[in-house]
Write a structure and sequence with these properties.
Elements lengths: L7 E6 L6 H10 L3 E5 L5 H18 L4 E5 L14 E3 L5 E5 L9 E3 L3 H6 L5 E4 L4 E8 L3 E8 L2 E3 L4 E2 L12 H13 L3 E4 L7 H9 L4 E6 L2 H5 L1 H7 L2 E5 H7 L5 H15 L3 E4 L14 H13 L3 E4 L1 H4 L4 H17 L3 H7 L8 H15 L5 E4 L4 H8 L6 E5 L2 H7 L5 E5 L6 H14 L8 E7 L8 E9 L5 E2 L1
Parallel strand pairs: 1-2, 1-16, 2-3, 3-12, 5-6, 12-13, 13-14, 14-15, 15-16, 17-18, 17-20, 18-19
Antiparallel strand pairs: 4-10, 5-9, 7-8, 7-11, 8-9, 20-21, 21-22
Length: 478
């Protein structure tokens, strides 16, 4: 099944989309990768969802990626005697280590790490920023604040700390258990929430041991500050605009989105743009014009994937939301300005054989108007470097490893096919041409360009280019 679309669609599955029939409908409508949000999914349900996605994959005959999104440290205030309180701007309000129910003057904060880390002058944002506090006095057991904006606070509302670098890792005890479970279930990507520093990836990578790739969610100011280091240690990035828009000025988020997207492209790391892309479609069958523009901007920017959250997980129109995102992306990619915008953002290749081969393959394919670039890849690296070039012709990634093909399903412009290793160079050319023909990327007489490593089955040794004709029966000749 061939997609006539380069950007990929990442759809969250949840109560509105968890049965196998609905997952199949979402795939048919355009979803390429499915996200399981571990904030709302226990291990038994997660394993059931993975099984259903794999069943849909088997029937579709095309690799489908699965992303497990870990909850991360959820920081919340305690409970109130009256469940909620009305505050006034300018009043004093204290967060402390006293477990007694709160009132209009104080509330329990069951996170000693926050009490130890917050300094006078730091902001504390409650309930997605609806209540803004500023610390004026701290003693390691309490934080005396002044109310800056907003008036209401209630039980268990979330706390954001845009000015405070917490001395804790990104993995909670729940995350460690969830990570073990999703790795055992065989997911392809793991998203890490509330990354602050590159060291936050170390524990997850040690646990994963290559069984899944790691995606860093950029949603804190500290992560933006150390973006280059985090990109270097990540396998992919997500622009998580929800919490990012709480912890940073909301008007800064579009610029940060561009910064992250372009930095990831330069590094050759896949990047996902997420949160509220078609938010109104949770309850409406069509999006707003502004939402259509928002999706279009991410596609013009060259993001690898665009994501649906509640729209597909809990909304009333999950299939329509995926279909709408698919149609928006297709229309953008047909726009006459699209190639020039994508090309203008292209970075210089790194001084490696793989990048030099990928650059040459793109230039040859576009100059000669070839039908496709075909990459043999075991680890996925060759496919990732080919997609980094953002060629105007399709990229077909051939891998003998199903897990590799599933991971690459997130990648811009890449069509993944699982195929046994070629026995020699002639078999490699023949196999590549036959797959291009079978997958409807070329007709007899069309030409394709093939990249691979010689000797065959040598990871990271991409060093060969071959132009080949597709024969009358789909066979190839150099």
């Amino acid at each position: 099944m061939r997609r006539i679309r380069k950007v990929k669609i990442l759809a969250t599955i949840g109560p509105a989309s968890s049965d196998e029939a609905m997952i199949a409908k979402l795939f048919d409508a355009g979803a390429d990768v499915f996200r399981i949000n571990m904030s709302h999914t226990d291990h038994d349900l997660m394993r059931t969802l993975v099984g259903r996605i794999r069943s849909v994959e088997g029937k579709a005959g095309r690799p489908i990626g699965i992303l497990a999104d870990l909850q991360g440290p959820k920081l919340r205030v305690g409970k109130f005697k009256n469940t909620s309180e009305e505050l006034t701007v300018g009043q004093t309000f204290t967060l402390d280590d006293n477990p007694e129910p709160g009132d209009a003057r104080r509330v329990h904060l069951p996170h000693p790490e926050i009490l130890l880390a917050v300094e006078p002058g730091d902001r504390l944002l409650i309930d997605d920023g609806k209540l803004a506090l500023k610390a004026v006095k701290t003693d390691k057991r309490s934080i005396e604040c002044v109310v800056v904006a907003g008036t209401k606070i209630s039980d268990k509302k979330g706390v954001s700390l845009p000015d405070t670098d917490l001395p804790v890792g990104a993995l909670t005890e729940k995350d460690r258990k969830d990570l073990d479970a999703v790795l055992e279930a065989g997911v392809d990507w793991v998203a890490l929430s509330f990354i602050q520093r590159p060291e936050d990836l170390a524990e997850a990578r040690k646990i994963a041991r290559g069984r899944a790739l790691l995606m860093s969610k950029i949603e804190k100011p500290q992560a933006v500050t150390r973006l280059a280091e985090i990109i270097e240690l990540s396998d992919a990035l997500m622009v998580a605009r929800g919490d990012l828009g709480v912890e940073m000025p909301i008007e800064a988020v579009p610029g940060i989105q561009k910064q992250i997207t372009r930095a990831a492209r330069r590094a050759g790391k896949p990047v996902v743009v997420a949160t509220q892309m078609l938010e109104s479609m949770i309850t409406a069958p069509v999006p707003t014009r502004a939402e259509v523009s928002d999706v279009s901007i991410a596609v013009f920017e060259g993001a690898d994937a665009i994501m649906l959250s509640a729209e597909s997980a809990a909304g009333q129109y999950p299939v329509e939301a995926v279909s709408m995102m698919h149609r928006i992306a297709q229309q953008v990619e047909k726009d006459p300005l699209y190639p020039s915008i994508i090309n203008a953002q292209r970075s210089e290749p790194e001084a490696t054989g793989a990048d030099a081969i990928s650059l040459a393959a793109r230039e040859i394919a576009e100059t000669l108007k070839l039908s496709a670039i075909i990459c043999y890849t075991a680890s996925g690296t060759t496919g990732i470097r080919a997609a980094r070039e953002r060629p105007q012709v399709p990229v077909i990634a051939l891998s003998p490893i199903l897990a590799t093909a599933r991971r690459l399903s997130l990648l811009w412009g890449t069509h993944c096919v699982v195929t046994p290793d070629a026995s020699d160079l002639d078999d490699m050319v023949d196999r590549a041409c036959r797959i291009a023909f079978d997958e409807q990327f070329g007709r007899p007489g069309d030409r394709v360009i093939i990249t691979a490593g010689v000797p065959l089955r040598t990871p990271g040794a991409t060093n060969m280019l071959r132009i080949a004709y597709i024969g009358s029966e789909g066979t190839g000749s150099a």
